[in-house]
Specification:
Elements lengths: L15 H13 L1 H4 L2 H10 L13 H15 L2 H13 L5 H18 L3 E3 L2 E3 L2 E3 L2 E2 L3 H19 L16 H37 L2 H14 L5 H10 L3 E3 L5 E3 L1 H6 L12 H18 L3 H21 L3 H7 L4 H20 L12 H6 L10 H22 L10 H9 L1
Helix pairs in contact: 1-5, 3-4, 5-6, 5-7, 6-7, 6-8, 7-8, 9-10, 9-15, 12-13, 12-17, 15-17
Length: 416
């Protein structure tokens, strides 16, 4: 076919590349986030009411678990940097992680060359210097830079006399210099940016129940395109600060909760009623509205998904079962999630999780929570609402949820 008669390729939509890139960043965030459950469990085992003085009385064992958990929470920026570099780069290998590590270590040390306040030695107290620290967001930036640098230069050929530094060996060297530049940049300009994030966090937390509801709605709204991890990272790892008994400063809803902040949990608590009760009830409604001849098959599938949601808090399998074929149900789900977030917070319920809002985290972190028992009646109410709303909407508007597909689609699936 000649170029004159060839069909023109469809023009790429403006912004589609950026959107796909953001989706890829969101997916790459899942790798470092997957480490958090281990940190949460270790830290929980180190609490006084488990292995400590108020539990088994094994104080040394409790100290070991607590310090092990803190090792992860204290190094979240580094974990996000390495995890994102591996997750974002195509065909990443160990050299990708090494490049990210080198870049981050240099960047982190360069930040200390730009102190906000100088260290002071006074009678009875030594005051450490403070400096600009982008925390997890800085780790994300360095991880992305490492991934892009690795993809661009990991096959670079140098002159023969520099051949030892070809390809993968070159990237960590480049990242040392890039880390220096990024450290200087953040050291000079981060203070006003950090103030904006701090002020936004204070505004969100100051909104109380409304702020929790806004976060819940945004979280669910971004889930279909895989970009909810952005807002999760800011809320769970950046917003809010708490100084524990040892004087260590923790940022973000999740680390604050696990280090004893009684005001933490604003951006986590309201997910428990939805994930443990409401979505399983939605799965039941989908089962009951399936065609009689399909109900047994759909029921088996939905029962499995409901149990997964209740126990672990993994809800995507249920949500994707109706997200695209019945968008109106997903809009209702997002609104009700926001309502759950607002109600739990307004009633003074504080709870948190290291993985997700399932029964495992619910019971494991019971003693760290405030009024955790209230989640059960709240969850049962939302379960009733979800069941009634989903069943009504499915039957009233004849929504093609699982088990209600047109006959020709079922025949095609059977033949396939």
């Amino acid at each position: 076919m000649s170029t004159a008669t060839a069909t023109a390729a469809p023009a790429k939509k403006r912004g589609s590349g950026l959107f796909q890139g953001l989706q890829k960043v969101g997916r790459s965030l899942q790798l470092p986030i997957a480490v958090l459950p281990a940190a949460g469990i270790l830290l929980r085992l180190g609490q006084p009411d488990v292995f400590g003085k108020d539990g088994l009385g094994w104080n040394k064992v409790a100290s070991v678990f607590a310090t092990a958990g803190d090792a992860v929470f204290s190094n979240l920026p580094l974990l996000f940097c390495v995890g994102i570099a591996i997750g974002f780069a195509k065909k990443a290998d160990g050299s990708t992680a090494l490049a990210a590590l080198v870049g981050f270590l240099v960047y982190k040390n360069v930040l200390t060359a730009f102190p906000i306040t100088e260290a002071k030695v006074t009678k009875g107290a030594d005051i450490a210097a403070t400096y600009n620290d982008p925390k997890v967001l800085g780790g994300i930036v360095m991880g992305l830079i490492a991934a892009v640098t690795w993809q661009r230069f990991h096959r670079t050929k140098l002159p023969d006399w520099l051949g030892f530094f070809n390809g993968r060996r070159l990237v960590p060297i480049l990242m040392a210099f890039i880390g220096t530049a990024v450290g200087v940049f953040f050291g000079l300009v981060w203070e006003p940016i950090g103030d904006v994030i701090t002020n936004f966090g204070e505004w969100m937390t100051g909104l109380g129940a409304v702020g929790a509801g806004i976060f819940g709605a945004i979280n669910r709204a971004l889930l279909p395109v895989g970009m909810h991890q952005f807002v999760n990272t800011v809320a769970w790892q950046e917003i809010g600060s708490y100084k524990d008994a040892s004087g260590a400063l923790w940022h973000g809803d999740l680390p604050r909760f696990f280090h004893g902040d009684p005001t933490a949990g604003q951006f986590m608590t309201g997910f428990f009623p939805i994930m443990m009760f409401a979505l399983p009830a939605a799965a039941l409604a989908i089962t009951h509205t399936a065609r009689p001849e399909r109900r047994k098959v759909v029921g088996g599938m939905m029962m499995s998904l409901a149990l997964t949601s209740f126990v672990t808090g993994i809800t995507e399998p249920i949500e994707f079962a109706f997200m695209f074929i019945a968008p109106v149900l997903y809009v209702i789900h997002a609104v009700l999630t926001a309502l759950s977030m607002a109600i739990t917070w307004s009633l003074g319920v504080h709870h948190g999780f290291s993985f997700s809002a399932g029964a495992i985290d619910y019971f494991l972190n019971w003693n760290l929570a405030t009024k955790p028992w209230m989640i059960i009646p709240i969850g049962l109410v939302f379960a009733g609402i979800y069941y009634v709303v989903f069943r009504f909407a499915i039957t009233k508007f004849n929504l093609p949820t699982p088990g209600r597909e047109p006959e020709e689609e079922i025949e095609d699936l059977t033949k396939a």
